[in-house]
Amino acid sequence: MMENQSVPPDTSKLPSNGNPKTAVLSSNATLFWRVFTPVFGTVFFTGLLLVFWLTDEEDLYLPSSVWLPRFILLAVWAGWVFFVWRTLWRLKRVDVDDTHLYVTNYWSTVRYPWQDVERWEEKRRLGRRVVNFWLKAPGRFGQVISFLPGSYFDEWKKEAEAKALSR
Fold first, then answer.
1. Which of 32, 20, 21, 23 is nearest to 148 (CA)?
2. Quick check: 85 and 91 in contact, CB under 8 A?
3. What does DSSP assign to residue 89?
4. Per the count of CB atoms within 10 A, which of 62, 67, 100, 163 is most buried?
C-alpha cells in the first residue's frame, strides 16, 4: 500500500498562502482555432455535402453528371475532417506555475508535474508559431502537448532558461 503513494513536490518555494502564481502560456486565439473553426467548418462542409448528396439529380442543373461533384465534395469533406483531426484538434490551452503544467482541451484539465516534461520546442506550422511540450510518458492528451504561444510565453521562456542555467 505504501509503495503506491507519491511524494508531494517541494513546497518550500511556494507563496505563503500555499498557491503558486499561475501564468497562461497559450494564446487567447487558441479557443478560436480549437473550437470555433473546426465546428463552423465541419458544419459548413457537411451541409454542402448533404445538399449535393440528398438533392435529386434533376434539381441540381449541372452541365455534367452529378456524380463527379458529389465525389469531389466528399473528398473535400474527408480532407477537412482529416486536417482538423491532425492539426487544429491537437491544440491545447496551457497554464504553468512553479511546480506544474496545466493542460486543457476546454472540456477537461490535466495537471502534470514539471518532472514529467522531457523537453519543449518551437516550430512554425501553417505560418503560425506552435510550441510542443514533450512528456516522458504519454498522458491523458498524449505525449506531445501542442499550443499557440501567447504574449507572456516569450517572457516565461527567458525566465525558464535563466532558471535552467542557474542550476
1. 32
2. no
3. G
4. 100
129-150 burial, b at 16+ Cβ within 10 Å, e below that, comes to ebbbbebeeebebeeebbbbbb
Q: The pTM is what?
A: 0.75
Phi, then psi, of 131 in degrees rounded to 5:
-110, 135
Q: 79 versus 162: which is more confidently predicted?
A: 79
pLDDT tens-digit series, residues 74-89: 999 999 999 999 999 9
Residues 6+ apart with CB under 8 A from 75: none
Identity at 113, one-letter amino acid code: P
Local confidence band at 160 (pLDDT 50, 70, 90 cut-offs): confident
